[in-house]
């Protein structure tokens, strides 16, 4: 099987962060993806790495140091205790370890694909990150993994242009807060509206390409909007690296939203983005897990996305 070199990065702490019984952002999400990769015969073809934790400096690229200090001070140390930061977002004693490794995984992935071998990477880590703002945890998120990865690529590797593709069904307000106005980053977002976290349509910025969709929209509407808005923006921007904020909660079976994407839509958007940015990004692509709350659909959609990351491009 001829495949693009694709790294698979995870860490045991991703299964230790637990926000309590019945919470949809649950440890089983990591296993749901991994189990499906095994069933599909894909896992053995991935290059496995164990995530290192992000350093304080790497976190501080995207977050206020006061916020990072406050989060550390608030973290519980007892076995059973949860510290609630908002109605949906809580820390147990493993949370900040897991969050540091989720952020570190994307930093490591960026280092790997910007190294001599190129290729792709998927970080099967949690907690997710795209709702975490510069100084605010919210929406199941603590550290903004994708923003930390983008800023690492720019500041540590000296890249000039990085694209972030956020196809999670919820708008990535945290990423927008951190990268808004940064001309080195193009943020392409698709989101259902009305839906958490927005009370009005997302703010526009010169470096944003926003695609607003509605309940009931499926692959046809998604593909048409992405083709009309993201592809021309990406062509103009010519990113040297592509990062996916890969949430799978726009899937038809997801319980937290009402969009109707299916596995093939995730494969399509992944394949098209890689193909259309290949001239500038050389197929260097890193993906980090965001949402996706129906365990079966999450496993299937993430596997379709990862298989598209692995596909060799005959035209390259
Ligand atoms: Zn989401």
Describe the protein's architecture and organization.
By secondary structure, the protein is α/β, with parallel strands linked by helices. 37% of the residues lie in helices and 16% in strands. It starts with 5 loop residues before the first strand and ends in a 6-residue tail after the last helix. The mean pLDDT is 96. Bound molecules: zinc ion. The site of zinc ion has 7 residues, from loops. Zinc ion (ZN) binds next to loops.
Kindly list the characteristics that best describe this protein.
Arginase, Chain A, two-stranded antiparallel ribbon, alpha/beta, globular, binds zinc ion, 316 residues, single chain
Topology diagram in text:
Blueprint: E1 6-10, H1 28-39, E2 47-50, H2 56-60, H3 65-74, E3 83-86, E4 89-91, H4 95-113, E5 120-123, H5 145-155, E6 162-166, H6 173-179, E7 185-192, E8 208-213, H7 219-237, E9 241-246, H8 263-276, H9 278-281, E10 285-289, H10 295-310
Parallel strand pairs: 1-2, 1-5, 5-10, 6-7, 6-9, 7-8, 9-10
Antiparallel strand pairs: 3-4
Helix pairs in contact: 1-10, 4-5, 7-8, 8-10
This protein binds zinc ion (ZN).
Zinc ion (ZN) binds at residues 168-170, 247, 249, 290-291.
């Amino acid at each position: 099987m001829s495949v693009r070199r694709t790294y698979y990065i995870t860490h045991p702490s991703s299964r230790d962060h637990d926000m309590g019984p019945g919470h949809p952002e649950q440890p089983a999400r990591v296993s749901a993806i991994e189990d499906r990769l095994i069933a599909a015969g894909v896992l053995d073809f991935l290059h496995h790495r164990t995530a290192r934790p992000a350093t304080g400096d790497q976190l501080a690229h995207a977050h206020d140091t006061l916020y990072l200090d406050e989060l550390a001070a608030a973290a519980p140390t007892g076995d059973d205790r949860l510290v609630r930061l908002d109605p949906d977002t809580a820390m147990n004693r493993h949370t900040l370890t897991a969050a540091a490794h989720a952020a570190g995984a994307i930093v490591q992935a960026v280092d790997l694909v910007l190294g001599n071998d190129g290729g792709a990477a998927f970080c099967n880590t949690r907690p997710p990150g795209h709702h975490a703002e510069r100084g605010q945890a919210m929406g199941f998120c603590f550290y903004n993994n994708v923003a930390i990865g983008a800023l690492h690529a720019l500041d540590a590797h000296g890249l000039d242009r990085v694209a972030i593709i956020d196809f999670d069904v919820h708008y990535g307000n945290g990423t927008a807060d951190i990268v808004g106005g940064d001309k080195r980053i193009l943020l392409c977002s698709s989101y259902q509206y009305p839906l958490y976290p927005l009370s009005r349509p997302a703010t526009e910025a010169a470096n944003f390409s926003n695609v607003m969709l509605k309940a009931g929209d499926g692959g046809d509407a998604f593909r048409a909007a992405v083709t009309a808005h993201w592809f021309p923006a990406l062509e103009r921007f010519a990113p040297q690296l592509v990062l996916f904020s890969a949430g799978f909660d726009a899937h038809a079976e997801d319980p937290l939203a009402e969009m109707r994407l299916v596995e093939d839509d995730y494969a399509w958007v992944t394949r098209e983005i890689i193909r259309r940015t290949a001239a500038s990004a050389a197929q260097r692509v890193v993906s980090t897990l965001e949402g996706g709350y129906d365990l079966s659909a999450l496993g299937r959609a993430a596997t379709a996305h990862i298989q598209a990351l692995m596909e060799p491009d005959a035209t390259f």
